[in-house]
Amino acid sequence: MLPILLLCFLLPSSHAADFCVADLMGSLTPSGYQCKVESAVTTDDFVFTGLGVVGNTSNIIKAAVTPAFAAQFPGVNGLGISAARLDLAAGGVIPLHTHPAASELLVVTKGIIVAGFISSANTVYYMTLHKGETMVFPQGLLHFQVNGGGTPAVAIVSFSSPSPGLQITSFALFANNLPSALVEKVTFLDDAEVKKLKKVLGGTG
Q1: Which residues does the record give as oxalate binding sites (predicted)?
Q2: pLDDT: is 11 or 95 the higher one?
Q3: Rounded to the nearest 5°, which phi and psi values hold at 110?
Q4: Could you tell me the maximum CA-CA distance found in the chain, to the nearest angstrom?
Q5: Are residues 73 and 153 in the same domain?
Q6: Whole domain around residue 183: which residue ranges?
């Protein structure tokens, strides 16, 4: 009996016990994507080249985020990790936002970035970061990044989830059809300011 048990331990196990490459034909759920069948998995599923490509910052926030989440990088599905590239042109900003499903670690690779977060006690923690410096943002807390110099800045960020989620506060408030009267109530802004922001960000109501 003992030799049979030893043989079971020594035999190679199915890849399903090692990883779960995302089947992007399925839907993303809170527990991730379903696994690809073993015969469809390739080396390409475990390689992502997008973090070496400069993002397009010609937009309203003068910033770009290139994600390497499960949806773009199937090999990270189920592994509890992912990454992204952050490009900030001069004057660029990633507005206050949260990642409901992950903590974030930012490493500046070029330029200067002012970054910070707000705790649930409304305490603010922020710092001006230079090349090689790192800051962490705890899961679910509001945080931001702003170009702190006059030249482009770049950072690589990693997350404790393959699908960290994202909600940008200003877009959540002003880029949808929530009636202006309700937005004014919950933000203490006047009607003119709310309608101005809705117009800028594409909201209605």
Answers
A1: 99, 104
A2: 95
A3: -160, 140
A4: 80
A5: yes
A6: 172-201
- Does any domain span residue 187? yes
Q: Which residues are annotated as a binding site for Mn(2+)?
A: 97, 99, 104, 143
The binding site for oxalate consists of 99, 104
CA distance 69 to 71: 5
Same domain, 85 and 48: yes
**pTM of the predicted model as reported, rounded to 2 decimal places:** 0.86
Burial 131-145 (b: 16+ CB within 10 A, else e): eeeebebebeebbbb
Residue 47 φ/ψ region, left for φ over 0, alpha for ψ in the -120 to 50 degree band, beta for the rest = beta
**pLDDT reported for residue 6:** 45
pLDDT tens-digit profile of 25-38? 999 888 889 999 98
Q: What is the mean pLDDT of residues 96-104?
A: 97
Region 76-96: what's the mean pLDDT? 97
Residue 141 sits in the same domain as residue 179: no
Q: Facing residues of 157 across strands?
A: 84, 106
Instruction: Check if the beta carbon of residue 193 is closer than 8 Å to that of residue 183.
Output: no
Nearest Cα neighbor of 63 from 84, 37, 92, 27 is 92
Q: Structurally, how many domains does the chain consist of?
A: 2
Q: Which residues are annotated as a binding site?
A: 97, 99, 104, 143
